Known about the structure:
Layout: H1 3-31, E1 35-39, E2 42-46, H2 48-53, H3 55-58
Amino acid sequence: MDNNTQEDLQQKLxxxxxxxxxxxxxxxxxxxxxxxxxxxxxxxxxSAEEFIKNRSAYHKPKPAV
Length: 65
């Protein structure tokens, strides 16, 4: 696999994961179902609406490898 093909694949995978996560948030919001996440090494429940409003407090993107 050449470098351009690998970068294209990585970009497609990243975009696919972002889209799947966005769809999960929309689904959870529609069903009024909590998200189960880990924050500060603790497992917590948070509503999708609260997560969306305070996304930066819960979701810290990890650097690309």
